[in-house]
Amino acid sequence: MIPLPAVEHLSGTSVIFPPHPQVKYIFDKLGNGVEVGNLAQFQRMISISCTMGDLYERLNTMERWLIAGTDDGEGKVPEEVAGRFVTSVFKTYITDAVNRCVSVPNGLEELVKEQTPGGMNESVIRFHKERKAYDITTDALNHVHKRLTGAL
Fold this sequence. Notes:
This protein is 64% helix and 7% strand. It contains seven helices and two strands, in the order βαβαααααα. The longest helix has 25 residues, at 79-103. The protein is globular and about 60 Å long.
């Protein structure tokens, strides 16, 4: 099991292997305990938990972009507002995703499909796909997984 920092705020998710009812009970009190049935599943789940820093860097990039403003100096967002806004927006997205995944199989895929064709959100997805950005995410996960399994 790997408790992530949010456990401090009773909102962390910890992967548990081997499954154990008392351990799950404890981690559910600290947020959410997710049991998996074998070591291979555990290692793949832990690979996902290794993206925390990547998410923070993405949020930091967006915050810096807001603070920088436009080339003519307009639109600069104050530092004390930028980070709070970026993290609040992502909290909204995550809340939507969590609610969807609880009730719908393939909930994340469905949320992607719901983006308005030709709309701004869909254009960001297309921009990233054309540049193979999502393939890079998969490559990074494979790299971390290999480190976790001793293949690197």
